Amino acid sequence: MVNISPSLLLELLQRIARVTKDYLGVLNEDSLRKNFILVYELLDEVIDFGYPQTTSTEALKSYIFNEPIMVDAGRLPPLGPAAMFMQGTKRMPGTAVTKSVVANEPGGKKREEIFVDIIEKISVTFSSSGYILTSEIDGTIQMKSYLSGNPEIRLALNEDLGIGKNSSSTHDYRSSSGGGSVVLDDCNFHESVQLDSFDIDRTLHLIPPDGEFPVMNYRMTQEFKPPFRVTALIEEAGPSRAEVLLKIRADFPANVTANTITVQMPVPSYTMRASFELEAGAVGQTTDFKEGTRRLEWNLKKIVGGSEHTLRAKLTFSQETHGNLTKEAGPVNMNFTIPMYNASKLQVRYLQIAKKSKTYNPYRWVRYVTQANSYVARL
């Protein structure tokens, strides 16, 4: 028996999920059920006798003969990170990332378009007084190409992008768009990326393979401005009662809106019930006390940049407290998604596609998304 690296298995599972999504368009229970034979055929080619062979969507095209059965992406929530793009806006079609890279559009033609997504996951820890203790950004530039003929692409990033902690940085926090000095701790690139001119003008040259793939992964621990400030306070209000105050401030521009915000706070194990008081005029907010896990939950449908929201909760205990509430409660955890915003200020200056003819002009979509990875406030 051989011990297999857990990292290898996790990477393989992630790549299998990505290849399956490339073929099915959307990864959910309905699409897997309807395309069971196709998925079985994919797995049979990806793994032989227990050994991984290839996870390249382009290489698998020669061996896969079943056509995908397309499903309605809105029927069931997708199982992957593409869930954040399923609700379309005027700037980006919601159905675009749910298309199969191997199936043709109705009428037999393929729409020429390419998607570049800058996805950042933020980890921040706040002290009880609201100061930042730790902060980190894990980001990726994700690309999904529906271009025929695999033309060469030039992807230009910030001109003054620095890599390594010795680089200097001068952030302009007043805007989430436009270029600016950005310093990354480290980064790595997809095998298709050519870095001949990257050190000169911060431009990436590549011929994109079929399907979805990460062009560049990066990490940043330099000082940056978190999108939210979270403060939490718990105080005794009697022998067997306490009051909780949660406050969220959105420190991003007013033209940006955060979606699906969830704030959770563990409370002492002897908490019997909780009553909530929302701010006046609160819309799209819900509260709940999870008795099984002894947690307060605060859900906000959206938060507009520059706004501030407050929640008060009154707790009733089954026994008297002994002044250890801050040790027995918390920390506060927050989850959110902010479309068209990125905390690192990493920007795509332009996306250039080699022209096949004078009339060749494919659609280009560049999108930014920031998510919470570990957003914690101590009491």
TrEMBL record:
GO CC annotation: clathrin adaptor complex; endomembrane system
Chain ranges of the MHD domain: 111-378
Family: Belongs to the adaptor complexes medium subunit family.
Matches recorded under Gene3D superfamilies: 3.30.450.60, Mu homology domain, subdomain B
Keyword Iron: no
An individual GO BP term: vesicle-mediated transport
InterPro entries in alphabetical order: Adaptor_comp_med_subunit, AP2_Mu_C_sf, Clathrin_mu, Clathrin_mu_CS, Longin-like_dom_sf, MHD
Keywords carried by this UniProt record: Membrane, Protein transport, Transport
Location within or outside the cell: Endomembrane system
Protein's recorded name: MHD domain-containing protein
